[in-house]
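seq:
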Amino acid sequence: MPAHSPSIPRALHIVCVALVALGLGEAAVTQPVSEPRFAQLDNSLRVAAVPMPDASRISVQLWYRAGWADDAPETLGACNAARHTLDACARREIAAIKPPDAAATTQLAAAGRSGPSLRFSSGTLPDAVWFAWSGPPGALPDLLHRVRALAEPGRIATCVPRSQTLAVGLGRFSLSSECASDAAPPAAMLPESVYAFALALWSTAPAQRSDDDDDGPRLTVSSDAALDFAARWFVASNAHVIVVGPAEPEPVIEQVRERFGDLPWTEPPRRNTAPARPAPERLRESCDATWDELRLSWPAPPADAPGQQAWDVVAAHLCNTVDGPLHARLATRGALPPRWRRLAWRDAGIFEVTLEFSTPQPLEAVEPIEVEVRDALRQLTQKPPEPIAFDRARALAARAARQRRSSFDAWALTLGEREVVGGDLLKADRDPDRLTVPGVDELQRIAAELLRARCVTRCASRSESRQPMECTSSRPVATPLGEATAAPTWSGDVGRVRVELFAGEAADWIEVVTLGDERLTDAMVGTLLLVGAADRSIAEFRDYLSYHGLDLMPARQGDQAGLVSRGPADRLPQMVELHRELLRPGPRPANAIEAATAAAATLTTLVAQSRRCGQAEMYIPPGAIGWHVDWPIPTSEGVFREHVATIPDDLRASVRIRGPVSPEAARGAVAEAWDRERPGR
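struct:
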């Protein structure tokens, strides 16, 4: 079978880039634009090589188109069973898959990395299944070897014998959580609800809710069904191999051709077609008689499309808890701080705002709340935000984008999804370090567009789990620097503070961790953010954090405890100073312990009520500067007095920074914060 050439739109895109480069003269020669390269092998396997010269890792992904979200449950069950089986097989046999030659092992050793630095993951999307390996750039031959082993015909048959019964859940098919407010968990749906929700957003019929239980429906799937599904769908003619990282595209494609070219060609499976999109109109699903959660969704451009950060700025402006107009309007109705997120659906996007209420609401309350949302949007179209509010919204939007892009593996998978599910990664913003700065007129244009667009309203009680889209698991806040297995790139002492620098994956996003000695126990971690700043109001800290686009959480590493912040690299002095303020010894106000105990009790109740959806980490709860659902909340006044009433004057701390920070900048920021006495002490 002859090799295939790139599609016409891709070819035109590449030709246009070349013509533009020629028109730029010598400037284009000195700084050439490195574009992705595409190929299709004789066996119909598609290859994409996406160069990212500044990346510190490389990702090799194997994608299969795997039907549509409206397939029968038995088909979805077989799909999940096949994927989970291959996943388990790959993880079990990691040590058994040897590098193809000694050169790969030598390259890994030269890069200062070992086997554990290689990462493997897999997942099921509504329209595709993926398997991905990533590692240091020198590990590319090894990664290709491992992916090739997964693509071997009949590989799944070596993992599970025929005629075996597999009890498998349909699970939850994730939509990409492209961009979200404070640590919002990734979106997820029951399989049969994915198609229904898209139908509600883009067709004339309202979506139907699923009545399945919280864990999703479970099926008994035979291994024969999983094997047959893999034999039909997991074939070269239905596969994509996508390589993202600091490697020249043409040599990468040749390596893929050498390793995957011998896979046999088979007839590709037929797939259904997606529904057409109708003219916009407002829709509302049927709601429960009483509810405490309301979600409004609008069609939107994909969040990873170039120049789309203005949507994030609009969301951050409307929903932030300092000066957000939507938050101000709904707080009087008993609403908790609004949450927002942007999702990917095939080649489009979804913009969603979630409103939760502390008490159940009657059905007739839906319409007034919808009116409040439309009025907030209309107000934005008529009057631009104040400069300080606009700057705050841009900082929060940049933080959300940086959080999404700070993980190379997640960013690389986003590009893979845009190619396989969305249809063309050339339409995605492939520069993880580029953030646009939208103007006020762009915000007003988007607000007007939301007023005109179709809106799907869904409401339900969080005590039930029948809404089409629901949270599954909160984004884990891992031990700080948990993946920094390599030694520090620099370390030194600044007074009694030990400073260590670690390499990061993002170009201008840093993580600052300040840890004390063993006297800062778990109880200390659980109370620092409640009473550590008793001489400053929670509102002041929220204002400060949101304006600079920073987050703040408890931290623990080994027997040490303290604080962790993440934010732009140019905010290093602010993060170090903030930590020092919270860890500075000194007397507390007389009622600090009693107030902290009451606040902790309230927070405990809030976390218990919302643990199922991870609500406690989606916004900063009342009475705390920051929080995470997994951290303990002491409620004993004695524990507060023992561990929080005073912080030792001779506290020896360590400051660990991951990201693009020079030793001089780190030393200067720590010296400025820790060597200066606090006024009034």
